[in-house]
Design goal:
The complex is a heterodimer.
Chain A: H1 3-32, H2 36-62, H3 65-95, E1 104-107, H4 109-120
Helix pairs in contact in A: 1-2, 2-3
Chain B: H1 2-6, E1 14-16, E2 23-25, H2 26-40, H3 45-61, H4 75-101, E3 108-114, H5 120-132, E4 137-142, E5 147-152, H6 158-179, H7 182-188
Antiparallel strand pairs in B: 1-2, 3-5, 4-5
Helix pairs in contact in B: 2-3, 4-6, 5-6
The chains are: A mainly alpha, B alpha+beta.
Chain lengths: 121, 199
């Protein structure tokens, strides 16, 4: 095992650790934030940066062309699909009024939605 | 010559089969073949040929209309977008971590951000890029006015709302420079709407 392989292994291990740390922070955020919309901020952390760090770490340890390609494919689809899911959760949470007990400091969306309802009537 | 090449749609590499509306789209076939090979996990001639056959069969069995959705691939722009996205993911992650451990209650806000681009693809790509960054949560997208509605944590801090809006506009410009047509880039280069009044 030469020095380059050793360095790649070490970097991969560090990235795996950082990715796990991101996921842990995301979970702590889920527990500490009070409402759905705030929690979705914390929940995107493990899903994007955490996954990216873990997969890059795995790629550095595997170091095989085709495996790296498959991992890149996973990252690509993860980045393309996770916003759709989080958007739908946020959208339904907002429309069912789960914006937290303290309410919003400012809400630009509510007047627009009520406008639309009036126009439809 | 290079300019002509740069603003060419990937759809110009597609051609019609027969008289019907079946269109063989070469970039799509190449992309499907690449996924096929990656999923099998070995690069061999058999996999390559099988992949091409499957991709062509799929394109013929489920014909898609040859629509130019306005996608252009600009390598330099994509590189800049990727670098900025990585930087933004790390810096926003630190910010969200700070908010997780900040004590005391806070007020959140829902903020409208009017975009300058008009095409559907740019609107979608910007929304996807914004939601991939920790701390960016898109609640609603209004297509008619090209407006994103963001959920902002910690809106008690007066600079927070403005910085969230600036971040979206910066992302919009980078996305247009990576994937947009010349027209999209011109739209995205216009000055941002000033003032903090909701529409």
């Amino acid at each position: 095992m030469n020095a380059w392989a050793r360095a790649a292994d070490l970097t991969g291990a560090v990235l795996l650790f950082l990715g796990c740390l991101q996921s842990l922070l995301g979970v702590i955020g889920m527990l500490r934030f009070p409402d759905v919309l705030s929690r979705s901020h914390a929940a995107t952390k493990p899903q994007t940066l955490g996954t990216l760090l873990v997969l890059v770490g795995v790629a550095l340890r595997l170091r095989h062309g085709i495996d790296v390609g498959t991992l890149a494919l996973i990252v690509f689809f993860q980045f393309l699909t996770s916003p759709v899911a989080s958007h739908l959760v946020a959208r339904s949470a907002y429309r069912t009024g789960q914006t937290g007990s303290r309410g919003l400091l400012r809400d630009d969306l509510d007047p627009q939605l009520s406008d639309m309802e009036q126009r439809e009537e | 010559m290079s300019n002509l090449f740069r603003d060419r749609s990937p759809y110009s590499w597609s051609f019609r089969i027969g008289s019907g509306r079946r269109v063989l789209d070469l970039p799509l076939v190449a992309w499907l073949t690449a996924i096929w090979i990656l999923l099998w996990g070995t690069l061999s001639w058999a996999n390559l040929v099988n992949g091409i056959v499957v991709a062509v069969c799929l394109c013929l069995a489920f014909p898609l209309p040859a629509v130019d959705i306005g996608l252009r691939l600009r390598p330099l722009g994509i590189l800049r977008l990727a670098v900025y996205l990585l930087y933004d993911m790390f810096s926003s992650s630190v910010e969200v971590t700070r908010q997780i451990f900040a004590k005391g209650p806070y007020h959140a806000a829902v903020v409208a951000v009017p975009l300058r681009v008009r095409s559907d693809l740019m609107l979608t790509a910007t929304a996807v890029a914004v939601s991939n960054v920790p701390g960016g949560s898109v609640i609603e997208v209004r297509r008619s006015t090209a407006t994103l509605f963001l959920h902002v944590l910690d809106a008690d801090d007066p600079g927070e709302i403005e910085s969230a809006r600036r971040q979206v506009w910066r992302m919009e410009e980078l996305v247009a420079r990576a994937f947009g047509t010349a027209e999209d880039i011109a739209h995205a280069a216009r000055p941002v709407p000033e003032g903090d009044t909701p529409p």
